[in-house]
Amino acid sequence: MKINVVKKPKTKVIKKTKKKIKNSNQLELIFKDNKNNNIKNHNKDLSFNYSNTVNSISRVFLSSFALISFFYIMPLFISFTENNFNTKEFKNNSKKILAYTLDKQNENKENTKSKREDDLLVDIFSLNDLESDTVRLSASTIKQLFEDTDYNLQDVRKKKLVKPVALTLLPQEIKMIENTKKRKEFFIQIVLPLIIKENSNIRIDRKNLFKIINKSNNTNLEKKWLGKKYKQYGVAPGDLSSLKIRMDEIPVSLAIAQAAKETGWGTSRFAQEGNALFGQWTWSGEGLKPKEAKAGEGHKVMKFNVLQASVRAYQRNLNTHSTYREFRRARAELRDLGKPLDSLELSKYLNKYAETGNQYVEVLQKIIKQNKLKDFDDAKLLPLSGDLESLI
């Protein structure tokens, strides 16, 4: 019996084994290549992360340096601009009277500023000069004067007529009047004729202005008068529209309320020593330095020789300063609608008069309502008779 040995399968197995070994070598090579690539990629990642970290640190450092430099340099820059451009003079502070600057290019020239302030207040300064020798009457003397002239607020509320008793100074004894109601009425009696008189002067000027506006040709005298009013109201020559808006009355009740608030019904130091009924500020004029003023603050409270000058300065302030532009706009709208000048409505636009803002407005409205001050809005000033003039 023959046994046939088949060798081909063995050969195939050997080849197959060799093929496996060959594939294994290839896998080993591939593994090594992959390992090398992973190491390279890892090294690249480490290098990239390191670069990012360095860049982040650099950016943080530069940002910090820029921020520190900003806070260090800005105070120096602000100080430089204030010293060289007088920016403090043109900030909108409450109640201040400063020069109006019609030409923006000349805002920083001190001589121009002073000149325009003189133009605005020239009639106020002249009123001060005319009344430099004044006598302070006692409270009892003034009360007797009111009785002798039959001047009392009850009659004024009914008849709407006010005796022209123009006192020049507040009595020192007003603070001694313990009865609050009597002290308030006494204060109103003193300031009421002064406020109505200034409104009467404005009313006359306003009528004259409309007369000129409605004419096709104006005389040299009228042109001269217009030129004077342009300066007094800080208006560019020829701007009749702006002059008409600025040249207008302040409601009597509003003026009384502000005088009461600013002076504590006539008892404040500024009212007693400087006849300052409305607490206007000045940087260049004569005034009283506030006791609570901080070091470096250059403002003073304007000082007047007579109470009448204080009232005129107050009205000029509201009628010219840019802070009260919205007040004048609201007043003009009431005029256009043929409505009376409502003190409660117009007081809303005086929130910048004091640092307390809207709270100040609320106080004014409360004073007007509680003391029924609107009763005096349509009151008229009686002509000054010879007998009354001799008593004053």
Question: Strands, helices and their partners?
Answer:
Blueprint: H1 8-85, H2 110-130, H3 139-148, H4 153-159, E1 161-162, H5 180-213, H6 220-232, H7 240-246, H8 252-263, H9 269-274, E2 281-282, E3 287-288, E4 300-302, H10 307-320, H11 325-336, H12 343-346, H13 358-370, E5 380-381, H14 386-391
Parallel strand pairs: 1-5
Antiparallel strand pairs: 2-4, 3-4
Helix pairs in contact: 2-10, 5-8, 5-10, 8-13
**At the first level of CATH, what is the class of the largest domain?**
Mainly Alpha
Helix content: 55-70%
Number of distinct beta strands? 5
Structural class: mainly alpha
Radius of gyration: 42 Å
| CATH fold call of the largest domain | Lysozyme
- Characterize the main sheet: 3 strands, antiparallel
Tally of structural domains:
2
Mean pLDDT figure: 77
Low-confidence stretches: 1-24, 78-94, 97-112
State the end-to-end distance: 170 Å
What spatial form do the alpha-carbon principal axes imply? globular
Lateral arrangement of strands in the main beta sheet: 2-4-3
CATH architecture type of the largest domain: Orthogonal Bundle
Tally of individual helices: 14
Beta-strand proportion? under 5%
Keywords:
392 residues; Lysozyme; three-stranded antiparallel beta sheet; two-stranded parallel ribbon; 14 helices; 60% helix
